[in-house]
Amino acid sequence: MSEELVIENWTEPEIGYVVEIPNSYTIIVRITKDISIHHGDYISIFEPGPLITDPKTDKNLGRFDFIKDTIQVVEIYNNFLVCQKQEKTKGNSLTMAITPLLQEKEYYTNVELPVDDSDNKEWQIKDSTIKILDPIKLA
Question: What pLDDT digit, counting tens, does each position of 83-114 carry?
Fold first, then answer.
């Protein structure tokens, strides 16, 4: 049994935006929609991309957004969230200091698909640098 994806009422995914960048490890964001956010939740900083239109029905399906990065909520204040990117590493601090090249990490790479070149639009992000006023959405 196959499930069909139905998008009837697409809405803007933006829930807020970047308001401060206190250092290269921390981003402060403001939430502008009435949603529930908790410590540990993930949000994505993104660049709005092109609208997607169904070629059969000519209906607007939404927008393809370019994700600049995904960060985690580490502190919650009344009017803003403090977020950071945290990465899990294996090993203790001693082994990580002595043998950083021997640490086990999983890496993923994209594999090129055999697409029709005439249909390939070659979409790319314009600016991957995180800036104040960049929109955010739930990850």
Answer: 999 887 666 666 556 655 556 667 888 899 89
What element of type H or E holds 96?
A: helix 93-98
Distances (CA, A) of 28 to 11, 17, 71, 83, 138: 24, 9, 11, 6, 15
The closest alpha carbon to 76, from 133, 132, 16, belongs to: 16
Please tell me the CATH superfamily of domain 1-86+124-139, with its number. Answer: FlgT, C-terminal domain (2.40.10.410)
**What does pTM read for this prediction?**
0.78
What are the distances in angstroms from CA 54 to CA 7, 61, 62, 113?
11, 7, 10, 21
Q: Which amino acid is at 72?
A: Q
Two structure tokens written together for 16:
């807020």
Q: List the structure tokens of 3.
A: 């499930």
CA distances from 25 to 9, 44, 86, 87, 99 (A): 36, 15, 9, 12, 24
> What six digits make up the tokens of 134?
């960049």
Domain extents in the chain: 1-86+124-139
